[in-house]
Design goal:
- The structure is a single chain.
- By secondary structure, the chain is α+β, with helices and mostly antiparallel strands.
- Helices cover about 70% and strands about 5% of the residues.
- The chain has 13 helices and four strands.
Amino acid sequence: MLVYLIALLALIIFLGILSLDIPGLWKFGLVVLEMVAVGKIFEKKFGFSTEMGFVLLKSRKGLKAVEQLAGYSVFKRLADVGTVLAYGLMGKVLTPQHIDWKNLLAGLALLALLSLIVAPSSFYVLVSVLKGDLPQQSVSGTASQLLQWVGLALLFAGGLFSFVLLSLAFYAFVVLSATVETLFFGAPTLQQTAPGGQLLLPGINLPLIEGVLALAIVLIVHEGAHAVLARMGKIKLKSAGIVLFGIIPVGAFVEPDEEELKRKNRKVKTRVLVAGSAFNLYASIPLFLLFLTSFYLSLPLFITRTIALAFALNFIVGTINLLPIPLFDGYHIIDANIENKLMVKVVSYITLIFFALNFLPHFV
């Protein structure tokens, strides 16, 4: 009973902070402090499991559904096609043992669909929501045909992994150039440079309820896919559950037996690791169609906004998660498939530097 009272009190304080007439960065800082304190109380007083400040609510409920889904072999093919979505033609080189020509062609066709329709729409919708609005009609790409064809060729060659990594690198050099001009020549270039990345936080820069619901959809799809492919690879699942930052749901997780996963061959490892991003990308397509349909059905704004965020975040999270950063699946995928571990670490460190540079303008 006491734990529910503490959670209720934390919710009241959280809503009070959001209602304060102070800058968003201050609100964010106060929320972080509150949720860290709540997490510590849950850990010390009630014995909840925690990791890096996050509360893990573990349970074996839901694993029965995972077992049932693991009986459908189509999920293996979808994971293999997902490898093509992630790495394009490079996926055939990276994981040649389980990418046949059917998977390759299906993956390239889906890459074209995602890049020409879903990707530009997802970014447009997300920017609109961050500005506190939604597009009032269906969205369409505005890039020139030449840029579209160049982008498509890049996607076919290296998949969404290469596209997002090169985009991150390009803007990192833009920020680095602006930093040099500001530090050595006194120009206000860095202050005038927009950040290349944005943390997405329900209640801060996303609508609270719609943001939490959309992220829940993203995480259920992502972690559910990992779980199903793990069981198809005969890997034991210890538990599953929800990740809380204080009282705010920020994720979901499955806990496979890490030792069993390490002993599996590359094919099984890759399927398990790529499944999360792959199924986020798959989910973005029907959600995008549902979002377009919402304009004709005149659904309530709350529902339309939730669908819009769910489709946009599934695509963006699925793509960003392919980056070779240790906390992301992308790092573990290349680590499982590249023998030269020094190369893996170098690529990872360089990507972390690019990632940090993209966020640097936030702090100027």
